[in-house]
Amino acid sequence: MKRGSVVLFALLGITVSGGAFAAVRWWQMQHTAQVQHFDAPTPPSEPQLIRLQPVVTGLDQPTDIVFVPGGGMKAIVTEQAGRAHLVDIGAALQSGQPIDVKTTPLVLEMWVRSMSEMGLLSLAFHPKYQQNGRFFARYDPWVHDTLIARIAEFELPFAELGKHPATEKRTLVEVPQKVPLHQAGQTIFGPDGKLYIGFGDGGTANDSDRNGQNLNSLKGKILRLDVDAPDLIPKDNPFVGRPEVRPEIWAYGLRNPWRFSFDKEGHAIVGDVGQEGREELDLVSKGDNLGWNVREGSICGQGITDCVKPEMTDPIFEYDRTVGECIIGGETATGTRIAEIQGKYIFADFVRGRIWAIDLPPKAPKAGEAWTPLVPKVLGQWGKLFTSFAHDNDGNLYVTDVVAGEVLALMPAP
């Protein structure tokens, strides 16, 4: 996700199954090239408006948390090194004691490249998971000396969840990568039942390959797939039928959309990680061009003087390096646990350990359009590095932290 905040490392691997899992763990420990190190921010002594309660501990670089459809308070937590655990958040909340992830069953364990921004990055359950047992994961397989980003389908029937690991069934998308940077990593089903996937521009600085504005590349895009259609392409995708344009593309002009979610109108709320000028929060609709690398947020890209183009969409909120350095897209709080944030969108900054709440507008402005800036409310700053938000089936929120390797429940301040 971020430059300079971590010591990069490589953890090698390939997908296996069944009784070989113990061997995988041993092999991974023997072939860890370098222990990953994070520098946690030092929070100020200002008041925190919410409390963060640990509900899962012992995680190794957690990347995502997603609740099981129809599974009550059971959730899957993914780790960058290629593991996904089934955890019962409800039991932790009821007892007041966090769950040690080492006591939980594995849903996935695979050999992946987990250096820099690569690894097992996210997981998404099919909307009808209880009936069909299907889910999807974004990961970077170990394939000799080739860097590849993969979206794959897995199968694990609802009744067998927690009894044995899932089986990989097919590959949906593979994107070759030049460097392990700007990978993005979100997979999520939208309210329309389609699978949305975020890909970064693939690096390096200033989008040197011009992927963001290239509609014949899947990099720097949000893709939209129909996982129930033979060809995977929804017929109402915005660029279907155009020559030299990839039909999977739903929106483009993004740098590194690490995390996004959806509002009730079907807009994607995207935290797009910036380069050196702006971190931006985008409200994205079908066919939108968010501007990268012509623009970084609402300012011009390097070497560009004319970047106010009406076909581009402005961010709904942005901030510079005095505020933070790596935006983490979040979730809308629809639960009743914390009355002060109900209905607000909650997001964070990875480097500064800060969490905000903001009221979402009904639409995003076009570039150059008059706009009243949104003002978020700071909920607090912690000595943590937040990587991903999630909501349970009641709409209450959780966040992962790679410093302590925890899942934290957002709770009312004491």
**Mean pLDDT, all residues:** 90
Order of helices and strands: HEEEEHEEEHEEEEEEEEEEEEEEEEEEEE
Helix proportion range: under 10%
The strand line-up of the biggest sheet is: 5-1-27-26-25
In short:
The protein is mainly beta and 414 residues long. Helices cover 5% and strands 34% of the residues.
Describe the structure.
With 414 residues, this protein is mainly beta. The protein has helices at residues 21-30, 89-95, 129-132, and strands at 50-57, 62-67, 74-79, 83-88, 99-100, 106-109, 120-125, 134-139, 147-155, 167-177, 187-189, 195-199, 221-225, 249-252, 259-262, 268-272, 279-284, 295-296, 299-300, 317-319, 327-332, 345-349, 354-358, 377-381, 386-391, 397-401, 406-412. It is globular and about 60 Å long. Residues 2-36 have low confidence and may be disordered.
Jot down its keywords.
414 residues; five-stranded mixed beta sheet; 27 strands; 5% helix; disordered N terminus
